[in-house]
Input
Amino acid sequence: MTVPLCMLVLSTLALYVPARTFAAVQDAASHFLDVKPSGGRQPSARRNGHGSRLIYRGGPIITTMKVHAIFWEPKGSFVSPRYNSLLLRYFGDVGASGLYHNNAQYRDTRGATPLQAQLAGSWVDTAAYPAQKLTDGQVQAEIAHAMRVNRWSGGLNNVFFIFTARGENTCTSSNQCSFTSFCASHGAFGGNIVYATIPYAGTNLSACGVPFSPNGDIDAESAINVASHEQMEAATDPLINAWIDASGAEIGDKCAWNLGGVSILNGHSYLVQKEWDNAANNCVLAGP
Output
């Protein structure tokens, strides 16, 4: 499900939100992965809409994505034993894979394409959450804090993935919170600070989980799947104005929860969803 887009002009001062004030900065644009169909139903035709091609809207794409992973895990919080390590391994493996190469068909006005991705850095923050339900502004403030602490730069090629621990929800409004209406999101703030919010899928596996894990960690596997969805959308539509179909769906939305079996990325096994291939007019695990 795609929510209405909020296209606000923001000052780049959003980057300099004080570390622990958690000011409510609105994001410039955002896009959400909704919860999976209940009762074992198949993903909707809208997501897997054969004949409904992605259309270029004129915005930028990300040619080389540098991933920065932020694990916000306060003292006493829980993540599964291999959670961080498996996510970092995925980000190191996916960039040279056939799954990521599918993005190469989605060009910008210059003819540039999303060609590769790499893990550029990671950080664990053990500071307490300001609330049990984080606002999007609080998430953005934490990203700004991580950027300052680690001296990370913004710009379209840098994408910040923020992961929270079990039981912590994120809410973009009073009636839209993770695990009840969406499982993950991506967007941008401060002009060109691109980010993805990945709440802990293991909090509610029936809504946001995968059926099994080839790596023996269902919480981590579920997070990898939704992170993969957001990564491909950020690559092809970082500011929510590039590659989108006529219904408002992005490359991952059209194939959400359409798992294609175990994928081998750089010699490692993962259970991740397919992505939309305009050339094949279908959902695929490896593109042209």
